[in-house]
What does this fold into?
Amino acid sequence: MQSDKLPRFLLIGTAILYLALLLIVPACAVVYEALHKGVGAFLEAVRITGFAEAIKLTIIVTAIAVPLNTVFGLCAAWVIARNQFRGRALLMSIIDLPFSISPVVAGLMLVLLYGRNGWFGGLVETIGIKVIFALPGMVLATIFVTLPFVAREVIPVLEEIGSEQEEAARTLGASDWQIFWRVTLPSIRWGLLYGLLLTNARAMGEFGAVAVVSGSILGKTATLPIFVELAYKNYHTEAAFSAALLLGLLAGFTLLVKEILERRVQRKAD
It folds into this structure.
């Protein structure tokens, strides 16, 4: 009997050790480095030049990218899940492209398109919009890398529930908006919620693509992940670890919101 349990214990122990080495210990190290000199030192570190601007910029970029990708993801998911058409597989592959393309390459593509000598550089300069090394470029880069999450989470749910309920509601005289709000949305809420959480987490933590298009100018175009790198390279280790801790807290807050929403919906269902 004991010999039968041994492989299971070994697998569990290996999994725990793996998670500890890759996730728990590094997270604890960041918390320790940010707070080991006390809360006063932590608060002093976050007052360094560029920290507040990095937080503000991260929130602005995320607040623009997440709603846009949510709308796109819902529309794309509905079109793909409810229709059979030529090129459907190709469209799904295109939506998945950001998963396979390096974020640095994605940023470089935007520079080639909207940079001063890019394909559309002259056009955007003529109408007075600066894309590269400015907020529009950072938003575009974030939208690109977070594009697939909502669609990829919602498509399987829509395919699983089918269209019978929606057709029944339409037969009873419901409008398209009433069908979406009262029939479709409640059915896909968990898939949509997970897609939103993944999109939000990736938007706040994106580094590669945003670093290429932003120029990483401290206090102007540096988001929190870029601020961490710049502060660490400039030997402001306290500020770097404080910013990293803040990013971790934002991720934890996202998971907390998810848990609260899950419990509220479950309570209503019961």
In short: The CA atoms of residues 16 and 24 lie 10 Å apart. The mean pLDDT is 87. The two ends are 41 Å apart (CA to CA).
